[in-house]
Amino acid sequence: MADRCFRRNGSMSLGSEPVALVVAETEAGHRLDAFLACHFPVYSRVHLRRVIAAGGATVDGRGGKPAYRLHAGQQVTIVLPDIPRQAPQPENIPLEILYEDEHVVAINKPPGMVVHPARGHWSGTLASALQFHFGPSLSAVGGLNRPGIVHRLDRDTSGVILVARTDQAHSALGKQFAARSIAKEYFAIVAGNPTRDRDLIDCPIGFHPQVREKMAIRRDDAGSRSAQTFYEVQERFDGFAAVKLLPKTGRTHQIRVHLNHIGCPVLCDRQYGGRAKITRGDIRRQADDELILLDRQALHARRVAFIHPATGQCVEIEAPLPADMTAVLAELRAYRSE
Questions:
Q1: Structural domain of 108
Q2: Who is most buried in 109, 280, 322, 323, counting CB within 10 A?
Q3: Is beta strand 314-318 parallel, antiparallel or unpaired with respect to 183-191?
Q4: Are residues 232 and 290 in the same domain?
Q5: Domain match, 195 and 174 both
Q6: What is the pLDDT of residue 11?
Q7: Short-list 19, 33, 1, CA closest to 212
């Protein structure tokens, strides 16, 4: 895809509007290519190196090199190439429809499904499945790449996700999300036990200072944003807990970062929990039992309540717990009850 941004003579086909960024104290020492990749995650670092090499990026008005180490206060200016966008190709992927009318559809997204096409995930997405099942009867507000998609879930998070079938419904739902008036309830199995039965985690979230794919608690970073998550422990086990979560804000990776912050990461969260899978033997304390029960983060978007954009009535939709999380809970109840 990146090659499409080059002319036949090898030079970069750049846009016309430069974007200026000021290097923060926390970003001092970062390479120029890494700095830009953090601020523009839709572009790969390799792609951005080509932009820099083509003269599309400057540091304090001078041409930079990808490996140049930045200093706090410097101004980085970049002219980004356009990325050609194509509508997702329809794919016959089964969907579990929880609710449907002529305005709104609610899907129970399975774990492992990416919501819309992105770098490294151009097929097998929810957007492609929606194109197949609903065709042109989807909102166009989100652009060709996100037909009908009002919000998103992480790839390995399962559960209910809303889809707009008309532009009017999309706009109305978008306003409710922006006003935080849509009630969202998540369910998670966590490693460890929260010290309190219920509490509000109120910690700002920003980009991780070293790892571009991660977020982190950033109290003193000007670029961080406020984030609040209320949790309530529903069941406690020896070494684990089942938790209900009500996010008050919707920051990237918010629930996962907040739970990790209190010492109870989402079970099997590769990025924040350090564990990729759990076996039946792990729970039963039988080392020779290697049956894998779960190999993705144990986080499920269980319930959404919103005001219907056409009727004005409150609609509440719940997605059943998926089989992998149900299996883990059954084992915990049988072998790890306190």
A1: 97-178
A2: 109
A3: unpaired
A4: yes
A5: no
A6: 35
A7: 33
Rounded CA separation 337/181 (Å)? 37
Q: How confident is the model at residue 116 (pLDDT cuts 50, 70, 90)?
A: confident
Beta strands in the chain (DSSP E): 18-22, 57-59, 62-63, 75-79, 97-100, 104-109, 158-164, 183-191, 198-202, 205-207, 215-217, 228-237, 240-247, 278-279, 292-294, 299-307, 314-318
Q: Are strands 183-191 and 158-164 parallel, antiparallel or unpaired?
A: unpaired
For residues 320-334, one letter each, b for 16 or more C-beta atoms within 10 angstroms of the residue's C-beta and e for the rest, the string is: ebbebbebbbebbee
User: 236 and 288 in one domain?
Assistant: yes
Number of domains into which the chain is organized: 3
List the beta bridge partners of residue 161.
107
Rg (CA), the chain: 22
Is the predicted pLDDT of residue 285 greater than 70, yes or no? yes
- 332 versus 52: the higher-pLDDT residue is 332
Span 4-20, mean pLDDT?
Answer: 46
Helical ranges in 181-313 per DSSP H: 254-261, 280-284
Active site residues per annotation = 154
**Residue 162 near residue 318 (C-beta atoms within 8 A):** no
Residue 75: both structure tokens together: 């101004």
Residue 211, pLDDT score: 85
pLDDT (0 to 100) of residue 2: 31
Whether 127 and 203 share a structural domain: no
In angstroms, rounded to a whole number, what is the distance separating the alpha carbons of residues 41 and 252?
13
Query: If you write DSSP's letter for every residue of 285-313 in order, what string do you get?
Result: T-TT---EEE-S--EEEEEEEEE-TTT--
One domain for residues 120 and 39? no
Rounded Cα gap, residues 255 and 227, in angstroms: 9
